[in-house]
UniProtKB/TrEMBL annotation:
Example GO biological process: cobalamin metabolic process
Residue intervals passing through the bilayer: none
Family (UniProt): Belongs to the Cob(I)alamin adenosyltransferase family.
Residue ranges occupied by any Cobalamin adenosyltransferase-like domain in the UniProt entry: 1-163
InterPro entries, per the entry: CblAdoTrfase-like, CblAdoTrfase-like_sf, PduO-typ
Task performed by this protein: Converts cob(I)alamin to adenosylcobalamin (adenosylcob(III)alamin), a coenzyme for methylmalonyl-CoA mutase, therefore participates in the final step of the vitamin B12 conversion. Generates adenosylcobalamin (AdoCbl) and directly delivers the cofactor to MUT in a transfer that is stimulated by ATP-binding to MMAB and gated by MMAA.
Any Pfam family the entry gives: Cob_adeno_trans
Protein name: Corrinoid adenosyltransferase MMAB
Subunit structure of this chain's protein: Homotrimer.
Species assigned in the record: Tychaedon coryphoeus
NCBIfam families per UniProt: PduO_Nterm (TIGR00636)
Length: 179
């Protein structure tokens, strides 16, 4: 009938922004899974990090499925989202960034299958973030969820560049077309 339940038992229309955010987060996990498979084929050591991210996205989904406006304390405790995963992403970003050459131009999603799949994941992550921010602003989701997605998109960008570098693949740069 076009309705679904949140974790709190509240019935909402399937078009509700909570379900939009949940769908975008699920799609993000799927995109990261694909990127992980391509990266695994190339022997990248960061694949375990991608798996950990997918697990964290399950926790993101739990938080989103528990709108704070209808959550009891027991729900909130069970689905809270801390700042710790955000800080871990920042450490990972710093670690990979230190190994990369400076970025001197806009790059296009490219650099081999692993890199391109990571760039695609980054774009899906940005969409998920755009779905989550209004929920945070409305007081329905933990602000750390939006922070996590924000840092995750940066992590995926840096990781895409790192994968291209490790595989010896060229990143295509943006060239402004002549008028």
């Amino acid at each position: 009938k076009g309705f679904s339940n949140t974790f709190t038992g509240e019935r909402r229309p399937k078009g509700d922004r909570i379900f939009e955010a949940l769908g975008a987060t699920d799609e993000l996990s799927s995109a990261i899974g694909l990127a992980g498979e391509f990266s695994s084929e190339k022997g990248h050591t960061f694949v375990d990090q991608l798996h950990k991210v997918q697990c964290m996205l399950q926790d993101v989904g739990s938080n989103l499925a528990t709108p704070l406006s209808s959550a009891r304390e027991a729900h909130r405790k069970r689905t809270s989202f801390s700042e710790k995963p955000v800080l871990e992403l920042e450490q990972w970003i710093d670690s990979y960034s230190e190994q990369l050459p400076p970025l001197r131009a806009f790059i296009l999603p490219s650099g081999g299958r692993s890199s391109a799949a990571l760039h695609f994941s980054r774009a899906v992550c940005r969409r998920a973030e755009r779905c989550v921010v209004p929920l945070v602003q409305a007081g329905e989701a933990d602000p750390n969820v939006a922070k996590y997605l924000n840092r995750l998109s940066d992590y995926l960008f840096v990781l895409a560049r790192y994968a291209a570098m490790k595989e010896g693949k060229e990143e295509k740069i943006y060239i402004k077309p002549e008028p």
